[in-house]
Amino acid sequence: ATGVDEEELLVRVNGAVAAWLARGGRQLAVYLPEDEPRRSMIAREVAAQLAATASRGGLLVAEINGRPAAEHPLAAFLVEAGFSASAMGFNVSRRRGAPTEHSPSDE
Fold first, then answer.
1. Quick one: pLDDT at residue 95?
2. Which residues contact 62 (CB under 8 A, 6 or more apart)?
3. Residue 99 pLDDT more than 50?
4. Whole-angstrom Cα distance, residue 69 to residue 78?
5. Reduced to 3 states, what is the DSSP secondary structure of residue 45?
6. Strand ranges for 1-107 from DSSP E
7. Average pLDDT over residues 60-67
8. Residue from 55, 42, 40, 58 nearest 2 by CA
9. Residue 16: how many CA atoms within 13 Å on its side-chain side?
10. Which segments of the chain does DSSP mark as H helices, in order?
11. What is the C-alpha separation between 83 and 48, in angstroms, rounded?
């Protein structure tokens, strides 16, 4: 099972915690295995889950495991998942048409 716990922004892959983002924070802690292909598979899933969560409210990842996000191996997977590189890190903006708290269809 995979999933994101939005309360704490824990990302789980196959039931194990693979990443943690402090609520409202820009620092991401990632726990990737050393061996391939598991490392790439988990990195890809972490990036995809973060992008899906970010599409509802936006997200900026400035640091990964204490260093600039662009220097971490996860960077390529973030771009693949739809994040954009910027001077401050990698970000995903809320997608147009993404559900919001209130929409005209609710009326």
1. 57
2. 26, 27, 68, 69, 88, 89
3. no
4. 10
5. helix
6. 3-5, 10-13, 16-21, 27-30, 59-61, 63-64, 67-68, 84-86, 89-92
7. 93
8. 42
9. 10
10. 38-54, 74-80
11. 10
| Radius of gyration for the chain, computed over Cα atoms and rounded to the nearest angstrom | 14
19 close to 27: Cβ distance less than 8 angstroms: no
Q: How far is CA 65 from CA 19, 49, 56, 71, 82, in A?
A: 10, 18, 24, 10, 21
Eight-class DSSP state of 9: T
- What's the rounded Cα separation, in Å, for the pair 48 and 43? 9
Does 70 score more than 60 pLDDT?
Answer: yes
Q: Which is more confident, 23 or 37? A: 37
Q: How far is it, in rounded angstroms, from Cα 7 to Cα 32? A: 22
What percentage of the chain carries pLDDT values higher than 90?
A: 56
Residue with tokens 């995809």: 48
